[in-house]
Amino acid sequence: MYNEYDNEKFFEKYAKMPRSREGLCAAGEWHQLKPLFPALQGKKVLDLGCGYGWHCKFAAEQGATQVLGLDVSQKMIEEAKKRNVEDQIEYRVCGIEAYEYPVNTWDCVVSNLALHYIQNIEDIFQKVYRTLKPGGVFLFNIEHPIFTAGVGQDWIYTDEGNPQYWPIDDYFYPGERNTHFLGHDVMKQHHTISQILMGLLDSGFELKAVEEAEPPKDMMNIPGMRDELRRPMMLLVKGVKGVKSTPDSNIKPVQ
Length: 255
Hints:
Blueprint: H1 8-14, H2 18-22, H3 30-33, E1 44-48, H4 54-61, E2 66-71, H5 74-83, E3 89-93, E4 106-112, H6 121-131, E5 132-143, H7 145-148, E6 156-157, E7 163-165, E8 175-181, E9 184-190, H8 193-203, E10 205-212, E11 234-241
Helix pairs in contact: 6-8
């Protein structure tokens, strides 16, 4: 399966991004994502689309006893093994859709900026629900539907080259989007807000948090960062594995 992140030229450009060089502290959404993590001391954590392994390292530092980072990109996994190694972390070249999702195995499943490459996101939600232990947490950051519905995922610019507005089209038509990222054509998948949130609820999750990423004030001096307040780029969601209700259930609510 072709993956743009294993393209040598693309990966070289990706490696120069601030979040690639500096890790979580350079990620504009980290100040919002970090507080959403549950306590990880003594827990087992699965990272879907782990990239360089920054979140795997964070989980290990928080006391997780077992961490598995999956990524479809061989280059990503190689980099993770160089940068973020701990005894309790295992890295594996494996796509999100290809993982086996063993039943009731993980305490926390995290995914950062990877699920917008998945076409059948509802299927992944169901598999994550299955693999979590009761009470387990699913925490993910996905490109916001306003962003993925953007035409070419880019601004319309003035004659002087300044961002004028963010165009949106075909919002209610989920599916493949051809985007231009780091000088390369990259295929992503657009999902609506309804698809994402109702997909989680229909899978049995209880929603605990839904946040739209806003860059922190201390990053406002970075060129282009103020424009990130003009439209949301990322959607942060936290769900907990609850108990699916069934029409013939004999379980009665506590009075």
